[in-house]
Amino acid sequence: MDSRTIALIRTTFKAVAAEDGGSERLSRSFYSILFTDYPGVRDYFPAAMDSQRDRLVGAISYALDRLEEPDKLLPFLAQLGRDHRKYGVQPSHYVAVANSLKSALQQFAGTEMWSDEVAMAWDEGLATISGAMISAAEKETTPACWTARVLERREILRNLSIVRIKLDQPMEYAAGQYVSVQIPARPRMWRYLSPANPANEHGEIEFHVRSVMGGWVSPAMVAHTQVGDQWLVGSPLGGLGVPRNAKRKMLMIACGTGIAPLRAQLMSMAQRRVNPKVHLFVGGHHPCDLYDLAVLNQLAEANKWLTVTPVSEHDDNPWWYFDDGGPKPDLSSLEPRMTGQIGKVVASYGSWADRDVQIVGSPSMVQTTKFRLMAAGTQAKSIRHDPLF
Ligand SMILES: Cc1cc2nc3c(=O)[nH]c(=O)nc-3n(C[C@H](O)[C@H](O)[C@H](O)COP(=O)(O)OP(=O)(O)OC[C@H]3O[C@@H](n4cnc5c(N)ncnc54)[C@H](O)[C@@H]3O)c2cc1C
Ligand code: HEM
Question: Where is the FAD-binding FR-type domain (predicted)?
Answer without folding.
Answer: 143-243
